[in-house]
Amino acid sequence: MRNKWFRCVLCVQLGWCTASIITAQTTDKRVCIIGAGIAGLTSAKYMKEEGINFTVLEATNYIGGTWRYEPKIGSDEYGMPIYTSMYKHLRTNLPKPTMELRGFPAPDSWPSFPSWKLFYEYLKDYSRHLDLEKHIKFLHIVTSVRREGNIWKVTYKHIPSGEEFVEDYDFVVVGTGHHSKPNMPNIPGEKLFNGTIIHSHDYRVPDVYKDRRVLMIGSGPSGMDISLDVAETAKTLIHSHHSVVNFRTPFPANYIKKPDVKEFNETGAIFVDGTYEDLDDVIYCTGFEYDYHFLDETSGLTLNYAKRSLTPLHNYVVNIHQPTMVFMGLVVRACVVIAIDAQAQYVTALLKGNFTLPTKEKMLEIWQKRVDAIRSRGKPISHIHILDQYEDQYYAELTRESGIPRVPPVMFKIRSKDMEAKLENLYTYRNYVYTIIDDETFTRTLEKDKYNKSFENELH
Fold first, then answer.
1. For the whole prediction, is pTM greater than 0.85?
2. Going from the N-terminus, what domains does the chain have, and what CATH number goes with each?
3. Rounded CA gap, 160 and 100, in Å?
């Protein structure tokens, strides 16, 4: 039944869960968690339950990471960069069951695909309910993490005062995410163009594009979502991308599909097929770089291919060369909230000594097999972070190695069905409501939408 996924929430709250009492032993290890987004909060939750000594360092004055909407762009009142990429009309692109953190169900009143605001309030409720903020040092930015002997020297600064601190930690959890440093494509002629060019990181509202000719570059989740958002107000929305995905969405009349941009000139863009379009504005939806500026060579890690991958990691989490350092959320094409929660349990189990990692040689062997498989398909190393059709196998492997509770296969099944709905129609996929029946099955109900489609139910 669905309650199996949440089966311990009440007993843990009331102190009835013997397993929790038995394992809630203190440890001498000092843990530094970098970031108070989903990764930092879930890590803090499980470590607190297990009596682990940890501190969360957060560069901003709030929890939730990118899920907080900030109308300002550029820098904040302290001159620090705005890290969040949230835009005003964003709704989750995955349904409610795949957005819930373990043991903390989302409100029944939520729509199937909640807004950023609802999800951000949910994260604040999660933090308050678990009393996590007392473990967080807000407005403290990490500037250096260096391995010296058997410890990590973590240097961080209190942003308002500029005061700097250096502390020793036995274990480091990096939970800073990878959606804050824009990846800019540097297309020829950019400096000649007289219009505006921004990255989706700085996109907030479509109103500023009213009656304008806007070029959108990129067809990832944000590229598709923002394109439809801007098309509501723009005179013309030109969408440049090379995706082979067969989107069957009935795009509006002002939407024009174009191939890659060859170059810009003063008034517009020339595309690789030789066509030209006059433009007023350009929005790059070209993804983000992995930004770990606080790491140096002592981490033993490598940033590859325009900083779009971090290697080598065991199980997408553990630094193979320095296994007392872990990275959260470096997975793509997955139920990311569910994956991060599972990773937080895995890391906590590792800290508690509930399982032992394979040898360094074995971890490198496993990792190299994944690299070889990616290269054999002619894909770049950045694909090392993609789960996609292997997502459920990943959850099974985390459980097999560490003994943590198994993420139910139904989560991957819901994501797969949701992907089919996206391909069918980007305007209507959020009309589906997904309800979990048990660990394997769910129902999907199509609500009556603005196109007057009939109700239908499907059981999987």
1. yes
2. 2-181+288-407 (3.50.50.60), 184-284 (3.50.50.60), 411-459 (no CATH)
3. 34
